[in-house]
Amino acid sequence: MKYISKLFILSGLILASSLTFAESVTTTYDFDTQAFNGGQIQLPELNFEGPASGSITTRYSYESGNYSIDKVVVNFDSMPRIVAQSFTKLDNEGHSFQAHVNNAWIFRSVKVMLHFPNGISQPSMAYLDISVDYNTSFIGSPLNNPAAIDGPLLTSIYIEPVERRTFSTIDVYRTTVDNKAVILKLNKHPIRTTADGGWPLEGFELKVTWYGHGEGTYLFEAPTMPNIKPVVIMADQFEPNAISIGYQEDSYTGSTPPIPLEVILQEAILNSNAP
Asked: How far does CA 261 lie from the centroid of its chain?
């Protein structure tokens, strides 16, 4: 208990959380894929063909209830990387986004178009196109059609985003259930992910091992403010068979509501082993 100097009463904890609740949550998705040349500009110094990798960082605003894109990074095999920010949403459903990147490669400006067929909240696939910005580029400006919107396509990429997850143990808790050892490990990184319904899911993650039964993970759902840090796994003083997570937020300390250990094991291991 050395990490936790005091515990909040649950009602006080909820109040404190509501006053400092994070205004938004970011999620980063990584990808490895193949890039293809657009074929509309033939220059030896432009070769996007080959392996490509990168990341997409999305942001969910609690105030507006909308998703946006913070940043897209693409690393090419034969071309310098590109970093796109300041995306504009092109539709209300959150399927298509657009950004402009100045001084990219040999161009004054290029346009980055990102489309999510099934929406941004749970992106299982995305299409990324990079084209020349007409009227602002050194090369490719349509002298015969200065009002045109879309410039020549430089590269097209199909993406299958994978949510970035990092587990680093900050505390370990050991006990036994049905004469079998149980080991709980607490992730030092708060989890910000997406639930099946598409809304953000936040909290503190446990890696659970129950010898003879298997392994899994369990998430203590809690609002994860920007400066919050999970610190310790605690057996609840009023419910000996329940577990809480102690955390720090700047100079404050608190704990999550206790969860019965049998519930943690049921959801973390038995459900994960279900066919």
From this structure: 28
